[in-house]
Write a structure and sequence with these properties.
The protein is α+β, with helices and mostly antiparallel strands. It is built from six helices and 16 strands. A seven-stranded antiparallel beta sheet has the order 7-2-3-6-5-4-8, with no helix packed on it. Strands 11-10-15-1-16 form a five-stranded mixed beta sheet, with no helix packed on it. A four-stranded mixed beta sheet has the order 9-14-13-12, with no helix packed on it.
Length: about 300
């Protein structure tokens, strides 16, 4: 998950222990009632709580640093060739997967880097004019978010002290086709997830230096795997959680009252969610300092240990 940090009222695994929940549920069950798959049932009820809506206790702030563009030296390019040769360059293998613009032209993906020969292999053949000493920029617009990120709520560029505007991918592609502007970051687009199901975003325009980005996101609660784990739900929701677990077990046991017990769980869940919404409703309307005062985010000085990703 990287080095994300939580600033809300519950941290991962800081709720009630599963064995304590088991004791509470067991006190409600009829004598000798079977209890099968208790850990699975706990995780399923936590998922039901999660899908009821957004809760403030699963909001988390995290940060990462963007990669400064690289422009040292010049490049030689040939029309219809995928090879780019550098002069006075110090390219590294970490640049594979980044983007390059040559003489301010079209954007190309860098497939691989030969650090010894100082050559790049582009994903497609170069479409521009042959040149032996062209200027260029290598940059990284795409960034990885925390692995437990379900939805990004807000983003800030802490370097420029500006909030980033979320736009759709079509807007970014159109903008790139119309201009080669770079400088202040203004926009961010959710790219979805990669094959490892890790969330990605693209920042546009790409920063002209390394910037510090902060984002407030709604995280996926962690699952319990043993009876000694703590659930990822604050203790004030224990009555609701216990009611849901009890109803699920009664359903497994085909008890006659399981439907009424499940309805009671849903009513308790709705009531708890409604109590949480006056705070949640402010998340999109207030500034960073207000969010810090609410305990939702941190106003600490940015330090290296806060970073999720540092690409070099």
């Amino acid at each position: 998950m990287g080095n994300t940090f939580t600033t809300t009222s519950i941290s991962v695994g800081q709720g009630t222990a599963v064995h304590d929940l088991y004791k509470q549920v067991a006190d409600w069950l009829p004598k000798n009632a079977p209890v099968r798959g208790f850990i699975h049932t706990v995780n399923r009820i936590v998922d039901e709580i999660r899908t009821r809506g957004f809760w403030t206790f699963w909001l988390t702030e995290a940060r990462f640093s963007t990669t400064a563009p690289y422009t040292t030296g010049t490049v030689a390019v040939t029309n219809a060739s995928t090879t780019v040769t550098g002069t006075d360059t110090v390219w590294t293998s970490a640049m594979a997967g980044r983007r390059i613009r040559i003489s301010g032209g079209e954007e190309y993906l860098i497939n691989s880097v030969d650090t010894g020969a100082q050559t790049l292999a582009l994903s497609i053949a170069y479409k521009g004019t042959t040149d032996t000493a062209a200027t260029y920029t290598i940059y990284e617009p795409n960034y990885t978010l925390a692995s437990d990120c379900e939805k990004v709520m807000r983003l800030w560029d802490l370097t420029d002290e500006e909030e980033l505007l979320c736009v759709d991918a079509g807007f970014v592609h159109q903008r790139r086709a119309l201009t080669t502007f770079r400088g202040w970051t203004q926009f961010v687009t959710n790219l979805g997830r990669d094959f490892s199901y890790v969330p990605k975003i693209v920042i546009e325009p790409y920063p002209d230096e390394s910037h510090q980005i902060s984002y407030l996101y709604y995280r996926v609660p962690s699952k319990v795997t043993s009876i000694d784990d703590n659930v990822d739900v604050p203790s004030h929701l224990d009555p609701t959680l216990v009611q849901g677990i009890y109803a699920a077990i009664q359903r497994q046991n085909k008890a006659s009252d399981w439907q009424s017990e499940y309805l009671s769980f849903k009513e308790m869940l709705d009531a708890a969610w409604m109590r949480d919404q006056p705070i949640m409703g402010q998340i999109f309307r207030v500034g960073r300092q207000d969010l810090a005062d609410m305990g939702i985010i941190s106003e600490e000085t940015y330090v290296t240990s806060d970073r999720i990703v540092e690409l070099s």
